[in-house]
Amino acid sequence: MKRKHYSVPLFFIALFLILGCVRGIQAKAATTIMPAAGNANLKAIDISHYDVPQDSNGNYLYSEINWPTLSNNVNVIYIKATEGCTITDQFYQQYAASAKSVHISYGFYHYFRPNASLSVDKQQADYFFNAIKDIGFDCVPVLDVEESSPTPTSPSLSKSQLDNAVEAFADEFKSKSGLDIMIYSFPSFVNEYFDSSLSHYKLWIADWTSSGPIQNSIWSSWDMWQNSDDATVAGMPDIVDSDVATSNVFLSTPSGKTWIDSPSGTESPGNITVSGWAISHYGVSRVDIYVDGKDVGSVPSAKFSQRPDVETAFAGGGYYEPSNSGYNYTIPDGTLLGGTHVVTVAEIDDRGNAVWSASQKFTLNMPNPQICLDQPNGTYTNNISVSGWAISHYGISRADIYVDGKVIGSVPGSSFTARTDIEQKFGSAGYNDLNQSGFSYVIPNEALAGGTHTVQVAAIDNSGHAVWSAAKKITLNVPKPQINLDAPNGSYTGNIAVSGWAISHFGVSRVDVYVDGKNTASVPVSSFTTRSDVERIFGTLGYNDLAQSGFSYMIPSENLAGGTHIVQVAELDNKGNAVWSATKKFTVVVPSEKINLDTPSGNYAGNITVSGWAISHFGVSRVDIYVDGTCMASVPASAFIARTDVESIFVSKGYSDLAQSGFVYTIPQGELAMGIHSVRVAEIDNGGHVLWSSQNNFQIVS
User: Fold this and answer.
1) Do domains 370-476 and 482-588 have the same CATH topology?
2) Looking at residue 248, what DSSP letter applies?
């Protein structure tokens, strides 16, 4: 792995080269390839700040790494974090944050400077742990052991001293983190310095060959193999160490945790503070605050605060930045009503996973809004008075008046009046504006239709809370709108006359004419005519405009197909009330549309002629040619040809344009594939009616 290079005397450089040659000879002499300790299907690299280029001032350029591209080419990144007791890689935190942002699993390694003094080895373990404990790594922490002395100029430790140094580091790190390390080294170093006491640790072996790492004297298999120190990997700006890893390098991922500290117990009126902490292996993106199941707000992680207690409890446990895990959210005064509430917090991590806190109950100690509807009651023939009172801790903004579920007016709080009875009853209960708690509103008689109605009032306080009164029923004694449909009746061969009368206490605005459920026309009241018979019957019953209560409308015969139809009329009065007439059936006597498909049928080797005839009482607009269910063409009526045979048969039966009833369309040779095809023709007449021919089948043989 790449590390800082020390200035070394030439003697030691020569010695290093000689040892390297010896190791190379040993590697060539060994022929046994060491197997993986699992399915080695993970691509990995290991990096430090030395793996990015420098600018002209010698500064390393972290930004040269293309992290999105790198995420498509590697599964795992090991990052150098520390070396010895004093060196920290300048980019290890940025590397980790970037890897996390593109969902690359990552871990850290420590470059070991073994020391005969075990306390120094333990200090290195503490130094490594403190550097990475809050970064939420995914992979087993690694001890990089490839030196046998504290510095290049120091004497080498003996085999037993070096093994003791490794064990001291590993034991100290586990005592702080609860995790075993993985050891990185290369075969010749393992054979020379390690003994079997280290074999229970996972192994990351460095052997830059294409066939696989050679067998060593301690481990029988590897968990990760560094196979090159000069690999080109898309996303990295320079050559880099490349590796192959098994899934043994992964740590188990701890579950996210979310906790609510407050509120709890009883809260006084005012702002309510929701506080606690949230941690995740992947890092927390935000927490969402829910009160009584409703999302009331969010706290982004950028606004989180320090929680040393959480850091102490979870440091090294695989969580990302547990030290900065505290959240606070203020629910503004007026958001909640008095009484018991349930608060829950959802932690959303950087990968979109949600972790919910336990629910916590608290009580807001203040009175809730109240309302009472005193009137109306009973039966009314004129205007209706609505009155009552409404109170709230926050003061009342307005009272909305509803009749039959529809708001018809509002009374602002500034128009409320004194209610000394209410002030006396609730004077010490914590309500505001008790001296002005009464409301009143007059519903004009003409605003409602006669009959039974339901009145209800909603009081809206100054914090937006609504409280509803009980509903009251009243009866308005005015005549109901009435309508009668006199015609049509029976059978028609020409235009169809629709007529009748309509009356309302509020005056009629219009009548809408419906035929077969479709709104065909409207007749405004300005077109109504005199109906003395209606005026005579209803003259003293409270209806308006009786002198002009008759309506009529003519439906052109060509607008309807032959057969039975249903007509109905809707009266709309000046207050928007609607009343429907009974339905009437009538018959339009017109001949039904007809269509015949003469050709094609049989076998064809050239052009295919589609021909036939189509007739309608309303005149034909076009025919559409369908082959194998797909519309291939249309033939407009203007292109129709004479069919004297059709004209002679239907000449006296009420059809239009019989002189030109034939259609012809040619499908060019080669337009259709060989084989059997189906053809149908749809007639569309000038009334928009559609009639389909029967289906003909034909075959193209060449």
Assistant:
1) yes
2) G
